[in-house]
Here is the input.
Amino acid sequence: MQHDAFYYPSASRRMATFGKRGMVATSQPLAAQVGITVLQQGGNAIDAAIATAAALTVVEPTSNGIGSDAFAIVWVDGKLHGLNASGPAPQAATIEALKALGHDEMPNHGMLPVTVPGAPAAWAALSERFGKLPFADLLAPAIALAKEGFAVTPVIHQMWEEAYHHYSVYPDAAFKPWYDTFAPKGRAPRPGEVWSSPGHAKSLAAIAATNADAFYQGELADAMDAFSREHGGLLRKADLMAYQPEWVDPISVRYKGHDIWEIPPNGSGMIVLQALGMLERLEECGGDPVETLHRRIEATKLAYVDGFKHITERAAMAPTTEQMLSDAYLKTRAALIGEQAVDPIHGNPLQGGTVYLATADNDGNMVSLIQSNFKGFGSGMVVPETGISLQNRGWSFSLDPQHTNALAPGKRTYHTIIPGFITKDDQAVGPFGVMGGYMQPQGHVQVVTAMLEDHLNPQAALDMPRWKWTKGKTIEVEANFPNHLALALARRGHHIVKVADSISFGRGQIILRHPDTGVLEGGTEPRTDGAVLPI
Here is the structure.
């Protein structure tokens, strides 16, 4: 995996990072340092992932927080394990209740789209099942960062600034704690400015001391309940007390001799697997660069509309995952990919969006973990004096009772955040992920195809100019996307739009293990302040 992309002659030639005894890759250098320190102190890859995830709630609050959801894929002792720590809708969250409050669609801010946060439970569950070091020790670095503060990095500042202006349209008292916590000087922190959150530190300390029980049963649960009641929310302590993350079996497809693994629904990893499954069933195109890109775009579009139509809580899905990934159905969908771009329509298998991190240790353990507030800081709801920024994952629910993803009490919604993992011949190759809302499945398809078909190393795969399907035949591309390819795709019927802001094209991390030597090879995202650190 060391060649340049054949259709991107100007692709970056940055080298991948190599390590022997361990590696951590994530979107913020301080968080990566926390993970590496845990490995050096005798922790394993799971410990490093937990510590890194907790640190990310402090140093990248623009994308995740204590009130986030999380998913993880863990390779331990030659076996993959999946963890779904997305939270359900509150028991009081019904379509009738939302409509009685005057809503025809799910609101995206305020307390109403808040579902039960799963991240703290994920950390505790991972530690209990696979960790080596005491849980409290893993959260200690994040507590110190929150208490002492950290210097804000440039990309984080940019997202913080956007969120500040975004929330400025909400003058009501419910948003005041957000400003008190994240804009104490009446503005977003500037690059290099130190920001701290004593409340965040106190909450993390309570979670650390109780294996997250304080969040779901104790004083933090009480605080969330009281704040929700005060500001018209539906979340209650009983919803928090009832919550448990779910251990699941990851699902996969075969692509270029490798098995690509994702978390099953309600996560949107199914979209990645469908797209790769379609591509695997197409005849070789002789290395034609335009045809290669066109096929990848078309497969992703067809998979996405299937996802929007069918993916929700797994128990509520009409087509099963087996039906959606069956050979017969994928062949049927692949047959729709022709010479010209199509306006994609979902199929019927019944007839036939965050922070991401990857870790690895010297014992062969590897972790792919992602956690998110969904959009930016999430709901804009911060529980006073706790630093708990609550996600707005319920925004994805539909208030149409006939919709697959219709709101219902205790139901988990369609979820954009997805960790990925690659194996070959029943051995771990490594974790990968690309965060960024609805860009995530598209990012997964692009980095997997770049590594396994274009033979790029992890860093080069992440550096490649990206494309993003938005609707119909519209494809957004980065500013450095080659003009000759953009024009060629336009002749195929794609509506190509160049976009200056690269952040919207996702932020990824990759760690691979070489089967012969055990050497780790990693890449980190050039579109953020990321770091990949080896030992």
Remarks:
- The chain has 18 helices and 21 strands.
